[in-house]
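Q: My labmate handed me this sequence with no annotations at all. I'd like to see what the chain might look like in three dimensions before we decide whether it's worth expressing. Could you predict it?
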Amino acid sequence: MRRTFAISLLLAGSVVAASGQSMSPYESAADFAKYAMKLREQAMLKVEPQVFVPTTSRTSTTRYPWKTNIITTVFWIGEQPTQNNPVPNTKSSWDANWANNYGGYDDPDPAARRNYIPVNFTPRQNPFYVALPYNDVTRGRFKPEAPLVIPWFKQAFTAQGQSVCRGRWLAIRKGNRVAYAQWEDCGPFRTDHFQYVFQNERPKPNLNKGAGLDVSPAVRDYLGMNSTDVTDWQFVEVRDVPAGPWRTHGDNNHFVIAQRQTQQQRVVQDAPASTKKK
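A: Here is what I predict for the chain of 278 residues:
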């Protein structure tokens, strides 16, 4: 930027020199500075790509904007394809063994659930999960727009092709209740709509009344949703996720991982000195 500004000043200076002191179009030094800044802005427009990214404030829970009045549908791990949902949910966009890694069929039948999980088993992953219609990875590499439109891309990047979207936390609001869940799959129907997920577009029409968010049975039960409903949602940072049932289960759950690490540290600290040496 400094180099571009210097070039702009030189260009402006050349104009002044060429026209002579008596013919200078600038009434004052302030006018000259304004003209130089205009040249700088024009030069920047020519050499810098124009990227449209979110411009909302970056503080606490208001860091990301709410997406409001979004048609929301319920999906579940192990769901078989139907007319309105042609893709089975035995695997996700990021996990070819999703159902196995979860621990089984996430039965949506309320009679087969208790405390937001199936009665038949304890999930090995967070039962509070969602899907949004964007995947940042294709064929093992990041999509070209991913570094430009994903607000946390730089901070979350670990390796080429390793999703920075998977596992992100969302707040989902219906009425006066708010649930929290992790982004674990892509859909409904699309995996390319970054303009909606990260910018200001509305969800595109689809077979489910233009649904723009899929939520798990646990989210449905906590919010008291119908199978098709209307909710608001926003991205949230891990530090902004309050206590609740979404913190309880899952090898992929930040809070479960942190709790296990704390327990392991206590075991090491409480172990006899002779055991530690081994």
